[in-house]
Write a structure and sequence with these properties.
The protein is about 60% helix and about 0% strand. The protein is mostly helical. It folds into 2 domains: about 90 residues, no CATH class; about 55 residues, no CATH class. Helix 6 runs antiparallel to helix 7 and helix 7 runs antiparallel to helix 8.
């Protein structure tokens, strides 16, 4: 998964070296079977590959229960972290972070700021050690914490997503939205 998006190419979760596991005995067996994955990393990679298609063509919809990213998200959320080993827990949370991170944008497409706020809170909850700075930038701006967002963006100069975060900040200050096209009526 980390190789697919530029912003996530820096640091994958630091679990043990992955070996194939008996997915039939895993609490996540439904997700493994759905995506034909054999390891937690492969589950994440296959999830991302499916999810990226609908996200890029803007058909991704958190209100469409049949979409694969929503089916996987529901499976993962139904499994408590305590029932998973460290590797599965880290990749489960990574997938859930990614779902909520993209759901923020989808809620923006739908002009639903309350959903954006809700999704940004959940994304931060699942983000863990992922180095992506955009999630917190969106959270701060959606919660009208512009000063904190300015400090956060400035403190991450040089990050691969710094330019995008700075653009979000600028759009928010100019248009009252994270993305210019949202602010244009």
């Amino acid at each position: 998964m980390f190789g697919i998006l530029k912003s996530m190419s820096e640091k994958p979760p630091q679990g043990p070296v992955e070996e194939k596991l008996d997915t039939e005995k895993s609490p996540l067996k439904e997700a493994y079977k759905l995506l034909d994955a054999k390891t937690p990393l492969e589950l994440s990679e296959k999830y991302t590959a499916h999810e990226q298609i609908s996200f890029k063509d803007k058909t991704w919809d958190y209100d469409a229960p049949e979409q694969i990213q929503n089916v996987v998200k529901n499976i993962l959320e139904s499994i408590g972290e305590d029932s998973l080993d460290e590797d599965e827990r880290e990749w489960r949370n990574e997938i859930l972070w990614f779902w909520y991170h993209h759901a923020i944008s989808v809620a923006g497409w739908k002009r639903d700021k309350e959903k954006q706020k809700e999704f940004s809170e959940m994304a931060l909850r699942f983000q863990g050690d992922n180095p992506n700075i955009l999630t917190k930038t969106m959270y701060l701006l959606l919660h009208n914490q512009v000063g904190d967002a300015e400090k956060w963006v400035a403190s991450n100069e040089g990050d691969t997503d710094h330019e995008t975060a700075a653009e979000m900040l600028s759009n928010y200050k100019t248009f009252g939205s994270l993305w210019a096209e949202e602010g244009v009526k």
